[in-house]
Amino acid sequence: MANTNKYTLIDGRKVASEIKKEIADRVAELKRNNKKLPHLAIILVGDDGGSTTYVDGKVKACKEVGFHYSLLRFADTISEERLLKHVDQINNDEDIDGFIVQLPLPPRISVERVTEKVLPEKDVDGFTNENFGSITSANPHIFPATPFGVMELLRRYNVDTNGKHCVVVGASRLVGAPLSMMLAEQGRATVTICHKYTKDLASHTRQADILLVAVGKPGLITGDMVKEGVVVIDIGTTRVEDTTKERGFSLKGDVDFDSVAPKCSMITPVPGGVGPMTIVSLLMNTLKAAEQNTR
Fold first, then answer.
1. Mind telling me the catalytic residues?
2. Which residues constitute the domain of residue 178?
């Protein structure tokens, strides 16, 4: 029997649009005062379709808010040393406030070496060890973009994390691990983090007041794995073959929306939930980097 409780859909597109308007207003103010405008540089290696789509979205977002941007594209045959030299050049370019290296990189190139080469103050993805470590400090620097977007969604939907039991499924360096730290530090939540070695996952997810899932396994979380009134944040996004779509695929989340949503008080959709917030978080981080750069 379906639950009669009406859940609230957490609309990431709407929130991202509101934040872009706030950023655009700030950029317009900088322009009126003849101040330097934020400048984001993006490095793209190869021609992976997914990466190209993500980069196109970031370029479009820069245009929408009035940022300057530079897109540096390289063939996937570029050597690691050559790529590192380009990273150095951007580090030394005083006009560029922030930059990202679009992942994934070719397997022969060390992601760790490349991301650690980025100056922490320009690392608007929040991937460097310095920025990662600062999450638990009294003065955090730049937050990892996707976790930052999740925290902003929770804040703008007035989801109180203080003392709540947050269960994070997925312990990746890019999302799950930093998000767990942010929920505990900034959100004052009690946090359980689950991963592929966790036994009896459902026994943990059923205890969650707020369930956050980021593993990239479509439909992993089903209705019998959550309690009534839970807030669910679905971060995973996977392309699944779909012959009914002109593009040949659909985007699916880690949560089986149809069975989980009726038990929720709030839930994010896929697409249109966390995804738009990742790009807008890059913009917020770039604006912050630019403002620190002009002090």
1. 58, 102, 125
2. 144-274
